[in-house]
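Trying the structure run again after the queue cleared.
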Amino acid sequence: RMETDCNPMELPNNTGFEEDSDYGDFEGTDVKDMRLEAEAVVNDVLFAVSNMFVSKTLPCAEDVAYINVETRERNRYCLELTEAGLRVVAYDFDQTDDRLQTPYHETVYSLLDSLSPAYREVFGNALLQRLEALKKESQS
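Done. Tokens:
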């Protein structure tokens, strides 16, 4: 994404942009803030891991955030979150290792499922309990 120091309201009227064109509000309205996205990811699966939090050391930006996770097996990872998905970038908190060429996962569930059998079990049990609760609700 191109950054600009120019306020769009200061552009001269002869730029060729029409008032009702798609450029009227291009200031990042459809770009996700990855820090907010990372917080949502953490809140989603925190119950199924030992520890998980957005890194305060590594830089977050509009297009990238880093999440530290410790699985129930006590393995630590630093995850990178981008539009491409999530991937492991180091085997410790607040680190990145450029030599690591780990695959991207579309979801945090898929990533944790591949890293942690205990996560899989806890998440599966929570899912079953939720289904049981829904079943009881629908029967009453």
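The chain has a mean pLDDT of 83. Worth checking whether this holds up in the mutant runs.
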